[in-house]
Design goal:
The complex is a heterodimer of chains A (310) and B (241). Chain A is of the alpha+beta class and 310 residues long. Chain A is built from 9 helices and 8 strands. Chain B starts with 9 loop residues before the first helix and ends with a helix. Classes of the chains: A alpha+beta (310), B alpha/beta (241). The interface between A and B is large, with 45 and 54 residues. Chain B: It is found in: Plastid, Chloroplast.
Chain lengths: 310, 241
Amino acid sequence: MATASATLSSLSSLSLHTTTTTHRLSFSKPTKPFFSNPTKLPLLHSFPSHRSTTFIAKTSDIDTTFFENFDPNEENDAVFNPPEAPEGFVAPPSFDDGPMETEEEIAAAYEELYGAAYSGESYLGNDIYVMDSKVRKTTGFGSKAKKEKVKDGLDERVVQVRRVTKVVKGGKQLHFRAIVVVGDKQGQVGVGVGKAKEVVTAVQKSAVNARRNIVSVPMTKYLTFPHRSEGDYGAAKVMLRPASPGTGVIAGGAVRIVLEMAGVENALGKQIGSKNALNNARATVVAVQKMRQFSDVARERGIPMEELWK
Amino acid sequence: MTRRYWNINLEEMMEAGVHFGHGTSKWNPRMAPYISSKRKGIHIINLIRTARFLSEACDLVFDAASRGKQFLIVGTKKKAADSVARAAIRARCHYVNKKWLGGMLTNWYTTETILHKFRDLRMEQKMGRLNRLPKRDSAMLKRQLSHLQTYLGGIKYMTGLPDIVIIVDQQEEYTALRECIILGIPTICLIDTNCDPDLADISIPANDDAIASIRLILNKLVFAICEGRSSYTKYVINNKI
């Protein structure tokens, strides 16, 4: 097994950029170990195509630039060069050795660092009830004052409120599902869903949800898109097209609301595919995320912007 | 980040059994770069890479501690629970060593309310008011208190979301890891041959079954945290005076 995997890995490193015909040529070399288990041979034809896809590591958005010179094939060349030990370096004792600290010492040390958070006792004279001011009162005397709108400059618009039912043994349970689009008119939009037993609560929940997934829309000077784009989400497909100034937003239903809340003045949009409001709203967000400004593309490709217009 | 010396000894790691992975049939092919060979049906982890990752993790932790960031150590395996608690107490960090309640970080608002209740119960216990109630009520409250102590005892000093989370076993603490990814909290994770190295921010390939190997790695990280903290307190004292 080990030899087979080693040879296959060398084969796949050869086969990353070659077509399937050359695979069969390279198979003729190490056929001897494979004769022992003839059942492996039919599998070999399917191996290279899926080996080359599994062998390349998936790109992730975690910053791993310190391992850029990392070649997984060079296993024997990996070297660990730690910096030199300072003189007189004494290995510290393990956390298990040494005398056990008393509970008071531990509590005092923690309190020095964090203050008396939720421990209920204080050795250094801090106020025990310091966290009480952070509690949001939902019931009781001061609760009515908190129901005002969160002031962060984002406007809300309700796209759709539907009554949905869940059938249980006792009958039908009714809930309201609200879809809300949140945006300032300067290029930030977000779509959110929320369900609750009352319309108002549902709208509030969906607004909270919308504020969590906000996307910025690339816009040009004339308040329109830089180029066409298509986006799909589920079965809903949306096509967006820029327009000359003075056109206004020509799009239907959910798409129009999303574009208006984003602050786009001139655009054309069409819902191709399903007409579901939520999916279309999400599809416009996807379409808008795919757009790039000319300056971004020029920066990524490392060429001046004039080249792009040639 | 300056690289410092963390006393990472390859022989020490071999003694603790850090290089043993899980059985060959249970591996995750994404761990292929970190596995050096196979022996008796068990994958052997490449210790040079482990040492490199461990020193990077220690550097990161030292830097964060010297800026006064908050840490959370999560380890709910029965074998490791005790050592996680002691390591965290030694390093003065928050820890979770019994079950990780779902939504502890993403539903921080609810966790805060439970922490408030915990604090109130403790206050009442200290004042002795629990003994004045009828026996049944006081028994119920004492049981609740002991429950809260086991699950939340390690995070009772946590005022907000932590800045760095250290997870001991990725398969066990998958929910915790998922929550940190959703919230965007950087994580350091101990990865075995059946785990996915791309999920955590810094993944240290090591053996998560042997208590000795977990203790060794926790030792190094705790040492780094302590060093960072001491430089932070010096900075704070110098600036306050």
